[in-house]
What does this fold into?
Amino acid sequence: MTNDRRLTVAVATYRRPEELRELLPQLVAQADEARAAGWEAEVLVVDNDPDRTGAPVVSAHLATSPPDGAAVRYTAEPEPGIASARNRALDEARDSRLLVFVDDDEQPHPGWLRLLLATREQTSAAAVAGAVESAFDGDLEPWVAAGDFFRRRRPPTGTEITVAATNNLLLDLAVVRRLGLRFDAAFGITGGSDTLFTRRLTSAGHRMVWCDEAVVTDRVPAVRMTRDWVLRRAFRSGNTDSRVRAHLAGSGRERLRGRLVSVGRGLPRVVGGAGQWAAGRLLGRTPLRARGLRTVARGAGMLAGAVGVTYAEYRRPVAAAA
It folds into this structure.
């Protein structure tokens, strides 16, 4: 039976034990603050690693944590893919009214959870998304820095939005259950299951709002600070956009219409981005070249998705046969 004053803070993890070790006490502190405000709060770790590298981290935390702190639970999800891990969080939070997602490579700022809860209380929204700031492990490539690609939009608190990621997201599970929403496994290794999930939520007429003060910091490793990663992520983002649009359209002629819309959105980006890149090269302006090339990559991803090509950014390596 659902407890309207119970909330679960869920972190899905995959082979990031050091990051999880640092994050876990911070989440417990946030949950303790919610408990002081009258919530029955817990922290849930969903380990998507078949080797369960997160288990020793949780065990070590429980061995040293005070008995009066927020509850911490560990569960393993053997099915690979972030969609499966997110669905396990939904299942494990069956007794909770609220579910809050955060990534295992992030760190919440002081008051993060309290601010998400306050915005939900003030707006009665079915979902509240918070801000994500980036912290870099070193210096960005000049091309990446010139494009300013890690700057995220930050609308005012209370602004209604139609799509969000689960890297900083509060969900009212009463609404989620009523709609029968799940994270689509077809997006498990491609990314985008949270995009489809939140678009289905808002397209059903439920409000999702922004809380700009509820901030988490995303730690960006060196491998993601390169031109190659930025362009691959832009392609994947465009590819996901087209695939989500096709899924929302349904089947038959409506899905075909959705694919044509994606072509109509992707082609101008390829052409316009190429023109921007050419102008930047002619004028010697790196920001123009960088943004133009990224726009081309996103448009190309949209076109690929429109014709059924799936880019599996999170495909895991296949273990070699013994």
User: Anything to note?
Assistant: The mean pLDDT is 94. Strands lie at 3-13, 40-47, 71-76, 96-103, 106-108, 127-136, 160-161, 168-172, 208-220. The chain has two domains: 3-224, 227-306. Residues 273 and 295 are 5 Å apart (CA to CA).
